[in-house]
Amino acid sequence: MGLLAPTRDTAGRRRYGAADLTRVAIILRAKEAGLSLDRIRSLAATTVPVRRRAVLREEADALRSRIRAAQASLDLIECALDCGHSDFTQCEHFRRTVAERLGP
After folding, report:
1. Residue whose C-alpha is closest to residue 9's, from 18, 17, 1
2. Is the separation of the CB atoms in 81 and 43 below 8 Å?
3. Do the beta carbons of residue 97 and residue 79 sit within 8 Å?
4. Domain annotation covers residue 27
5. pLDDT for 71
6. Closest Cα partner for 60 from 29, 79, 35, 81?
7. Which percentage of the chain shows pLDDT scores above 90?
8. Which phi and psi (to 5°) does residue 11 adopt?
9. Which domain holds residue 22?
10. Which of 63, 90, 91, 103 maximizes the CB count within 10 A of its CB?
């Protein structure tokens, strides 16, 4: 994928050093944050700090959006778990929460 460039020994086998392990950790954290491998590659290749910050700001905004969506989903699930109705879809609070999510 072009994200790692390990050295090779005389037999042509890849040799990973400490810098490679650090890079793998960065790649894994970026993947966990939702960045694609293409986006990670472009960040790694960018030597212009202003461009790197712009990309990171976009990714931070996207991650915040995903967090808000996940929190809204968790709130809905917790509402259903705490509901005293035998069918939580009949709960007024649950219906209101769903209606707010759907919008006008």
Report:
1. 17
2. no
3. yes
4. yes
5. 93
6. 35
7. 43
8. -90, 0
9. 1-45
10. 91
Both tokens of 79, joined, read 């509402």
pLDDT digits 0-9 by tens, 30-56: 999 889 999 998 888 888 999 999 999
- Across the range 77-98, mean pLDDT stands at 83
Tokens of 18: 């400490």
DSSP conformation class of 32: H
Does residue 6 surpass a pLDDT of 90?
Answer: no
Helix/strand/coil for 15: strand
Nearest Cα residue to 94 out of 82, 71, 76, 74: 76
Cα–Cα distance for residue pair 43/38, rounded to 1 Å: 9
- Which residues, in sequence order, are bridge partners of residue 3? none
In a domain, 58, yes or no: no
Locate 11 and state its tokens. 């037999």
Question: Does some domain include residue 13?
Answer: yes
The total number of residues shown for the chain amounts to 104
What is d(CA 88, CA 61) in angstroms, rounded to the nearest whole number?
A: 33
Alpha helices in 1-104 (DSSP H): 18-32, 37-45, 49-82, 92-102
Position 33 in a domain: yes
